[in-house]
Specification:
The longest helix is centred in the last third of the chain and has 21 residues. Helices cover 19% and strands 48% of the residues. It has one domain: START domain (Alpha-D-Glucose-1,6-Bisphosphate, Chain A, domain 4). It is an alpha+beta fold.
Amino acid sequence: GWTSRYNKSGVTVWCREEDANTVQKLKMRIVCKDVTAEMLYDVLHDTSYRKKWDANMIETYDIARLTVNADVGYYSWKCPSPLKNRDFVTMRSWLPLGNDYMIINYSVKHPQHPPKKDYVRAVSLLTGYLIQSSGATSSTLYYLTQVDPRGSLPKWVVNRVSQFVAPKAMKKIYKA
């Protein structure tokens, strides 16, 4: 089952332990009392605006549009020294559901975007956002992720660190 790891200031983080050789799943929730679901969706969906709130991002761009609500994209982020920076190629899909919104992604391979020499290609096993409207000017953001950063990091280190990094990331999205 899910174990609560953090619960402060409207942010809750749960983790689901997998076996010792697998990265854990994280589930998060943040209550956004003064942000509409539509605004949160726009913040998460706008790749050019992401530079404003995601200080770790190196670059992001669309590789290919698959349908009106699905694409393949590239994202890279800075890691603290001495670690190599990471990158992803993911298929992303999104769906407005009335006043609620969903965005999901998972890693894919793309023949024109092989792993880069100075990066470690991370893997999004499953990542998703659910944005639920909770009133005219408020919403709740749910985030589920299972990401393997790959490289030489032991899984237990990744699992431990992710529990502390996750709440900070949720607060940055809310403030954006």
